[in-house]
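Dear support,

We are seeing what looks like truncated structure output for some complexes. This example has two components. We would appreciate it if you could run it in full and send us the complete token output so we can diff it against ours.
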Amino acid sequence: MKEKAVILLSGGIDSATAAAIAISRGFDPCAMTFSYGQKHGVELLRARALAGFFGIREHLVIEIPAHIFRSALTTGSLEVPKNRPVDDVDEIPDTYVPARNILFLSYALALAESIGARRIFIGATAVDYSGYPDCRPEFFHAFKEMADRGTRAGVSGNGIIIETPLISMTKAEIIRTGHRLGVDYSLTHSCYDPGPDGSACGSCDSCRIRRKGFRDAGIPDPTRYCGEDGNQ
Amino acid sequence: MKEKAVILLSGGIDSATAAAIAISRGFDPCAMTFSYGQKHGVELLRARALAGFFGIREHLVIEIPAHIFRSALTTGSLEVPKNRPVDDVDEIPDTYVPARNILFLSYALALAESIGARRIFIGATAVDYSGYPDCRPEFFHAFKEMADRGTRAGVSGNGIIIETPLISMTKAEIIRTGHRLGVDYSLTHSCYDPGPDGSACGSCDSCRIRRKGFRDAGIPDPTRYCGEDGNQ
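Here is the complete output from our reference environment:
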């Protein structure tokens, strides 16, 4: 029988690639997706589509009330920044969502311990990213320490392992890895501020990192950007 | 203007006392309560009543789906243990809820950072308790470390402070403290396995710790236990 693993699946490139890696390593995936009032709620549909693509049978979609967060990704009065220098990781942008990965990992931890899974996969990367503190290796190490002290599994010496297979990869490396594993990136969504038809804005951090990633990887970007045709 | 603080309010003795302490210290309280499919869902009504008693204007009740947890407190097929030796803290009982305080604190952290609160109050105690790992000082220290690495407030040097004013108190000391601060403990609920009318079973860990606490404190227990009249 395959070993179960909890996979955080957002609907973006990174979590899709992390899922493909977990599956290629032989784990039986249980996916978790979070609806937290994100303006790019279209990613929830992509997460569903990806779960189907990967043949994941257990897929939990968890609701977190948007009003606990103040963030440009959830708060109507805060605008998603556009054309920001994405290599400025010293400044944490307004798209930062307070304690988001802490909450996501906490849910995954509760589920993992409850179903007897030993591993949680999260597609975080600290290379081509927006400088969010909860995407960096030191955060994941601290989370693991905390989980080892605060859970039954942890204190019994069988603490949950947080797998961050993408943490040191560039976006191009992530895309090449997923491409090799057969991920259909046309199912993924990255834009923080999509149009009503789900089209990508092309100028938020997430779109810019995505576009550059495909370009650097030498792989066509299947995304439809606002006012453009498909391939970049 | 008073400084805001997030208070985790379950409806039990400990969180009610922690709330009274926070208020007596001059904080403007924002309370959070969690509905997670607990068999003792009656505590949610008590949390509402306590919020009213304390005059707390902001009180968020957050839903966490019960099916992510396997625990005697949430899972129908697992019975709440009765008449267990409650001083056996080497064994973690089946009432342990995986990652519960981790999730509760993560929510509180997201809210605190979003509303600009610097402190979270949690009524955990590691003296008269059921041996849950997420109630011990080493867990709270590790949570704080993790939060300092994973939040914008933390990396900017203004990390959230986790206040655990009861952590080293016996149950009797907690009750005496609350009594002195005017807490109406008749509004609180402790039993893990209440009858359909909300009456306390008297024999689960939580009832037994509560009863002993009032007895040791020399203060009448206002609880109606199953098959008994009010005061013990």
